[in-house]
Amino acid sequence: MEIFWKTIALYNASTWIYQLLLMIVGCVTTFTLIIKPSRWTRLGMKIYLILLYLWISIVYYYIDCAARSYNEILALFWGVMVVIWIWDAITGYTTFERTKKYDKLSYFLMILPFFYPIISICRGMTFPEMTSPLMPSAVVTFTIGLLLLHSKKVNIFMVLFLCHWSLIGLTKTYFFNIPEDFIAASASIPALYLFFREYYLNNLSAKTKPSARIINWLLI
């Protein structure tokens, strides 16, 4: 636990200005996508997600969390999600089209990461040894909210990865004393259920990418 919080302190102390810039760019990109959706704003959102996931993979896990066990495996996990977003940006599979069916839950999930530092402060923690909106579970929560807001056609492969990470986040809440992750991971569960209900469980006979058989193996 001590190493865990020391690496978070190192991450925040060495990158806080870059985290702030990434958050500003993310807010502008997301707001533009919602207010004025177009081919370019959708592509811009995917490029931002590629950079954001690359940041978590390299800066957070590979560099600042080098003292942790299995940091390279976790960096690789996020690296795979970077590749998925690159593929999606090239193929245009995720359309970022609104359905307006789950707006309230979506917006809640998207703003939830900003409560990370607030909860840390309420727990008596101080900078830099505290959580921030640009930590892995917070980024996952934001992504789930974003995809749920634009749930007409999403990459179910990415949803699978986000689902696995949310489950990992639940285990961390006890071992590393980080209740912020419990709130975020728990809020993500109903959103993930909605994805699977609409795009997999209710459409087993439909053609999907990946196919239903591959998705089944991925779930296993």
H and E string: HHHHHHHHH
Rg on CA atoms, Å = 17 Å
Helical stretch count? Answer: 9
Global outline: globular
Query: Between the first and last Cα atoms, what is the distance in angstroms?
Result: 30 Å
Give the averaged pLDDT, no decimals. Answer: 87
Overall SS class: mainly alpha
Q: In this structure, how is the largest beta sheet organized?
A: none
Helix content range? over 70%
Low-confidence stretches: none
Per DSSP, what share of the residues sits in E-state strands of 2 or more residues? under 5%
Number of strands: 0
Q: Any chance you could write out the topology, listing elements then pairs?
A:
Blueprint: H1 2-35, H2 39-64, H3 71-91, H4 103-111, H5 115-122, H6 136-149, H7 156-175, H8 179-201, H9 212-219
Helix pairs in contact: 1-2, 2-3, 4-6, 6-7, 6-8, 7-8
